[in-house]
Amino acid sequence: MRKHSFITGEFYHVYAHGIADFHIFKQVSDYKRFTSLIFCANGTKPIPRLERTNDNLSLAWDITNGKIDIGDALVDIVCFALMSTHIHLLLREKDGKGVSVYMHKLFTSHAKYFNLKYDRRGRLFESIFQSRHVNSNRYLLHVSKYIHRNPEKISKYKNSYINYPWSSCQDFVDHNRWGRLLDLEPVVSQFKDEEDYQNYVLEPMRDDFPDLSTFGLS
Asked: Would you say residue 218 lies in a domain?
């Protein structure tokens, strides 16, 4: 049972694990498809067809350019990180039910794709996604930093997590690849420029917030 409701205009840190820490991404193509799915699922219309073999990233760009209509946005997507066994999202609720509908679309689409591709059956994600209400501006910045630092736990990216390809960090510190589909403004508007935000992310995590690992986050 979720301990909070989703309130219009409020921010939420949403995260989901593969069942029993199952690897929900096995190949680069899985990461590419899910990156596109993050944006293609954020609409009131059905998700555009995502192929199993192509990288699908062009579909998200077609939505940005107005070539594909997915309907009204369910949520505002602020930042994300895809890890081998779990995902992190920072979302703003649009109408009180957008987060739940959006996550259901993500779960359903990726599970169908994954099970078909890898000849698998059954649930892919834990039964319910987890979420925490981001109830202050300082916590908002903290969560964006936490999400963007998540890849530092991968040895290859320990000292270069800003370059991790499956997160939105590069969109914050360089060029926003997704245009209006990724709403950086609530965070980046509080920094002088991209370099200022990058320096913030590179600073050690503060200890005056709850340790997110105690809530099953990693």
From this structure: no
167: containing domain? 11-209
Rg (CA), the chain: 16
Digit-coded pLDDT (tens) for 74-98: 999 999 999 999 999 999 999 889 9
CATH of the domain at 193: 3.30.70.1290
pTM recorded for the entire structure: 0.91
User: Which of residues 30 and 217 earns the better pLDDT score?
Assistant: 30
DSSP-assigned beta bridge partners for residue 16: 87
Distances (CA, A) of 52 to 28, 29, 43, 112: 12, 8, 21, 11
Give CA–CA dist 48/172, Å, rounded. 26
Question: Is residue 4 in some structural domain?
Answer: no
Q: Is residue 62 part of a domain?
A: yes
Look at the chain and report how many structural domains it folds into: 1
Q: Which two tokens stand for residue 217?
A: 């986050």
Q: What is the pLDDT of residues 14-24, one digit of tens each?
A: 999 999 889 99
